Amino acid sequence: MDQYPRAAARDTVVGPSSDKSSQLLIRDYPHRAIAIVSSSHALIFRYSPTTSEAIANGSLVSVSSARPRAGSEGTISKCMVEFTPASKKLLNDFRPLTPRPIYGTLGLITIGQDVFLSVVTQANRVASVRPGETVERIANVDFFCLNSAEYDNVFSLNPYDNELSDSNSPYGQDLGRREGELEYPYQELQKLLSNGSFYYSTDFDLTNRLQDRPVDSATFDIDNFDDSFLWNSFMISPLVQFRSRLLAHEREALDASRILTSAIRGFCSTMTIPQSAAPLSTAKPGLPSFLTVISRLSCKRAGTRFNSRGIDDDGHVANFVESETIYWSPSGTLFSYVQVRGSVPVFWEQSAGLIPGQQKISITRSAEGSQPAFNKHFEDLEQSYGAVHVVNLLSESKPGEVELTQRYHFGVNHCSLSRPDEKQNRDHTLLRVTDYDFHAETKTMGYEAAKGIRNYIEHSADGFAYYLAEEMNDAGDAVQVPAGRNRVVVVLQQEGVFRTNCLDCLDRTNLIQTLISQLAFQSFLNHRTEYASSDFWVRHSTLWADNGDALSRIYAGTGALKSSFTRTGKMSLAGAIADARKSATRLYINNFADKSRQNTIDMLLGRLVGQSPVHLFDPISDYVSGELSKRAAEFSSTENITILVGTFNLNGKTEGISDDLTPWLHPDVLGSSQPEIVAVGFQEIVELSAQQIMNSDPTRKQAWERAIKKTLNGHAQRIGGEKYVLLRSGQLVGAALCIFVKVSVLSKIKNVEGSVKKTGMSGIAGNKGAVAIRMEYANTQLCFVTAHLAAGFANYEERNRDYATIHHGLRFQRNRSIDDHDTVIWLGDFNYRIGLSHERAMELVKHQDLERLYENDQLNLQMVAGLAFPFYSEAKITFMPTYKFDIGTDRYDTSEKARIPAWTDRILRKGTNIRQLAYSSAPLRFSDHRPVYATYQCTVNIIDEPLKEHISRGLYDRRKAEVGQTGTNLDLDDSEDEDLIGYDAIEPGLPPASSDRQRWWLENGKMAQSSIQAPRPTDGASSTVLNKTRPSNPFVPSDENEWVNVPRANSRLGSFSSISSSPYEHINHSTLLSTSASSSTPRKLPPAHDTSGLPAKVGRINLMDEPIPGQGQTHEPPPPPPPRRQATNNTTGTQARAIPNSRESGETPKPNPPPPHSQPLSAVTAQVSGKSKAPPPIAKKPVHLTSPIMSAGFQDFGQFDEDNNKPVMPRRASTNIQKLTSRLEQSNSPSLTGGMQRSNQPQRSMTTKTGTTNYGQGGLSGGVNLPGLGLGHRKPVLPARPSQPPQPGPMPASKSVKNSAVDLLGDDNGTEMSGWETLRPS
C-alpha cells in the first residue's frame, strides 16, 4: 500500500441521499421490460428484435434477400423507450429486479447479441464544491440484460466489500478470481467502472469547469456535457438523444428524476477548511470553507501507459487531464483556476520493457507530417482556454527526451499561434514555451528547488488571471432568488492556461502543477489583501498529492512518485523506498496487464470494430415533437423591448466616477421610459502601464458597476420607475462589459453566459481583445460584445485581423459562436480613424462637415469593402468625432502628437428583429474620449408555455389513441412493435420496408424525392437522357446504360416524356429547363393539336364534352392519349388559367378572328392516329411506368397568342411536328404556339371539315402544365429567344409584333397561361 492514504480513505463514507435514488423493476410477461422508477416518473425499456435478427432466428422467412451477408457491419440494436408518470396501474405487473436502490444510469451497451442497461448500485460522496453541489464516486456498477433473463440472478462475490473485492482495485486485473467462477460478457467492463476512478454528480455539470457552466443555475442541462471528459458518452448518447425529443416539461421531469448520469474519470475530493484556517474572513461565524480539486481525464485518446502515447491525427493527446482548483467561502466568494497536462503532442511510441529507464522512445512520423495534428491540438486548446503557455519538464540529457523536445520546438515554431503577424511584437503570440529540466534543476538542492519555476511563469500567470464569482446582495432590490441562496455574478474570468508535461505527465508534472495552483491562489489573495496560513497550504498540498496518486493509478498502475515531497515539502527515506516499490509494480502491470485493460476501455468508449450505439424509439413523443414544431405559431407571440447600449474609453481615469452619468445612461431621447436592458462597455478601465496591464484586479470594474447602478436607480426613483440589478459582468484586463436589467424582466432571462477573447498574450497587446455576454430573453438570443482593437492610425488591417480573431475565436458554452444569436451588438473602441491630414480634418470639424468626414472614415470604408464587420449595420452618425480631446475640455488634441479627430468609439448591430432609435455621444469630459450611446427597439419571441402544454397534451392523447395505447409498458406482439419502430432495409441503398404506420415515401407528410442531375453530354450537339430501353426495375441486372446521348432536338421539352421510367427517380425539370434555355438554338414552334374531342376518360376531363347551345360538336375519332402524363381533373383551375388577367394588363378584351388559311386539323389528326394504337381505357398503372413504345407515336401541338404573336409553350419535337410546322408556315399562318393558349375572349371556335372545334376558357382539354406553372405558382424567368429567319411568304401585320419575344416560362404581365400542368403522376 502507499505510504499516504488517499483522501477517500480519510473521509467518512457517505452515500447519496435517498432523493437521488431510484428503483429498478422488471416485467416478464407478455414481453420483457425493465423500468427505472423515481418518486414521480418511470423510464421503461423494451427490447425489439430487428428484421435481421428475426430472419436469423427463423421467425421471418418471407424476405429471402434480407438474410445477413458476409462481411456486413454489426446491426444496430433497437429498443422502445417511454418516459411517463409513475402510477400503480402502470407498474402493476412489475416486480423488483434488485432489492437495492440505484443511483443513476450510465446508459445502454450491446455486448455480443445482448443489450445491457448499466446502472450505479453503490456510490460514496467525496466532494462538496459548495452547498448544494456534491460529487459522488462510483463504488459499484451492475448490468441488466434487456432481451434475456439469463443474467438476472448473477451477483458478484462481496460486491460491497471494499477490502476483498478486486473490483475496488483502481487499475489491476482480477488476478485472484476463483477457479470455476463463471465469466459474463460484461464482467471486465463492470470491474473497470467499479474501480473507484469514476465520479458523477446529479447536482451540476461535472464535465465542464466552473467558468464554462452557469454559475447560479439550480439545475444543469445534460445537453451541455463536454464529450471530451464524458466517459459514458457512448452508452448515454441514445438516452440524451431521446431526452432531446421530449417536450420541455418532460425534459425537466427527467432531469429532476436524476436518472441520467454523467461520469468522468480522474479525481475529485474536497478538503473542509475550518474558519480558523480559512484565508478569507466571513460574517457568518462557524461556517467552514471548501477547497476542492477536480481532475478530468480526457477519453478521446484514452489508454494505458505504453499503449497510449503522443498524439493522434485529430489532435488528441494521451493522458490529457484538466485539473481545477476551486475554493468556496461562506462570504459568497467562488474562486477557480484551471491547468492542463498531456503527452508530448508528436507521434511517438515507447515499448514497455522490463528494465527501468531502458524503454526505447520511437518517433513514428516526420516533423512535417506531424504538424497538422500539432496545430489542431493547440488550436483546440486556444479556443477552449485562450492563450497557452507550455511548461516542458523533459530532460536535456536523456537522448529520447531530448529528441522529443526538439520535435516539440519544431512544432511550436511552425504553429501559427506562436508566430506574430507583421508589425506585431512577440508579445502578441498566443503560444509560448518554457523548458525546465526538472531533474537537473532539483539535482543539487532537492525538490525544494522546483519552486524556482515561478520565475519563468509568473508573468503569464498574472496575465491569465483566474475565475472569480461573488454573491450579490439584492435584498433591497426586490429580486426573486431561490431560498437560502443569493444571486451570483461573475467578476473575472481566466484568460489562458498552463500546459505542463513530462514523459508520462504524472510525477514531475503533478509537483509543478501544485506550485502553479498555489501561485494562482496567492495572486487571488493578494488582490484582496488577504493571506493564507500554513495549515491551509498543507491541506492544499495534500489534495494535490492525492490527485497525483489517483491519476497515476489510472495511467501507470501505481500511485505517483515524489508524492512524499508534494504532501510535506520534504523527501524522506520512506518516501524514496515507496517510490522504488511503485516503479517495480509499474513494470509488472505495464508488461502483463495493460493490453486486456486497453480492450475494456475501447469497449466502454464504443471503439471496437462493428460496435454501434443502441437505437431508442418513442412512438408517441417523437410524433408530438414534430407536430408541435408545425403549430409553433399558435403558441408564439412577440414583444418589443428597449435596449440602451453605451461605450466609454476611460483612459484609466477614475475622477468622473462620482459625476452625474445621466446624460450618457439616460439620455433625453428616452423620456420617461426605462430600457429593459442596459449594456455598458468600458475600455482602458485601468491605465496602460506595464504594471497595470497584467493586473486583473477587478476592483476598478466593481467601482464603476456601483456608479452605473447608482445612476440608473437614482433616475428610476425620480420618475417612480423600476430598479435595475447587475445581471453579469466580465473583464479582460482593461476592457469590461456590464449588463444591467430591470428587476421585473429577470424572470424572462435565462442561460446567461460570458466569454473573453484575447488578441495577444501579454505586453501592450494583452490589453486588446473582447468581452462578450450572451443571454436568452424569453426565446430570443441576444449577444453583446465590447472590444478594444489595435491602435495606430495606419493599423486598420491589424484591426480587421483583431475583429476576425474575436469573431471566429470567441466561444460560449456548447461551442456557440457570436453568429449563433438572433441579435448581436458590438460596442467599444474600435480605433478606426479618419483618413485625412490633421489640417483637413480640423477644417471639416470646424465646419461640422460630418458627411465629408464620414466618407473618409476607415471603419466605413472597411465595412463597404467587406473586410470588417460584414452584415453589420451602423446608424447615421450625427455627432462630432469622439477622439481625441484635451482632458476636461471640448478642444481636440493640442499636444505634440496632434491626434487626428476620429470616431473611434462605435456601436454596431446585426439582426432582423432590431431597430435603432438613437445614436449619439454624451458631454462627459473627464476622459480624452467621449462616451457614445445607442438605443434600440428589439422584437423578442414569447412562448405561451401553458398553451403549448395544452396543445402538446392534446396531441399526446390523440396519438396514444391512434397507436392503440401502444407503449413499452403495454402488450404488443412483435409485428406491431416493428410497425412502430420501422423495419430494416433489405438491400443497401433501399429505404426501410414500409408498414401500416411507417411509409418511407411519405416522410413527414411529404413525398420522398431523389433528385438526379443528368451527366454532361460528351459534346454540345447532344443532350443526356435516361435510357428508355433499360428495365423499369433499376435493381434488375442489365447491360443497358443508365444514360444515353441523343441529338439535341428543336424543342427543349422534347425528351421530357421519356426522361424517366423509374418510380425511384425524380428529375429536376427546372434545372434542365434553365440549362436548355441558355444553350439551345432558336426555332419555330409547332401548332396546337386539337384534343377537344378526346373522351373524358383519357387525359383531362373535356370541358366541352357537354353540349353548349349555339355551337356544334365534333364526332371525329380521338387521337391516342399522351404517354407518361396524367392530367388533373381540376376543371375549375383549368378554366381559371385561361381567363386573361385584364386588370393587371390594363387591356380591354377584344374578339380575335380565327387564323386565315388554317389547314383542317382533321388531316393532322389522321396523320397521327394512323401511326398509333387505339386509346386505352382509364389507366390503372402509374403514368411514369407507361410503356415507352407509346411515346413514339404521340405528338403534341400547340397554340399561340394572336395578340402578341408570341410562342407560349413548346411540345415534343418529332418529324411530324416539323412537317406540320413547315406546312402551316407556308400557308401563312399568323402565329404559332407550343401548346398554350392566351385569349382575351371567353370562347372561340375553329371550323374544320367535320364541324366546329370549341376552345373553352380552359384552353385545350388535354393540355398538361409543367411543374410549378400551375395557378398560384411563380414561374422561373428564362432568357428570351431570338426568332429564326422568316420563311418565304407574307406574314400578317400585327400590333403585338413590336413586343419582345415572350418568356416561355415567365409571367407575362401577370397573365396566367393554360396548357401544361404537371409531369408528375397524380
Account of the 3D structure:
- By secondary structure, the protein is an alpha+beta fold.
- Among the domains are: 619-635 and 945-968, no CATH class; 639-943, Deoxyribonuclease I, Chain A (4-Layer Sandwich), CATH 3.60.10; 1011-1077, no CATH class; 1078-1322, no CATH class.
- Strands 6, 7, 8, 9, 10, 11, 12, 13, 16, 17, 18, 19 and 20 form a 13-stranded mixed β-sheet that branches. A 6-stranded mixed β-sheet has the order 5-1-2-3-4-21. The protein has a 6-stranded mixed β-sheet with strand order 24-25-23-22-32-31, with helices on one face.
- β2 and β3 (41-48) form a beta hairpin.
- α6 (367-385) crosses α7 (399-413) and α15 (621-630) crosses α23 (945-962).
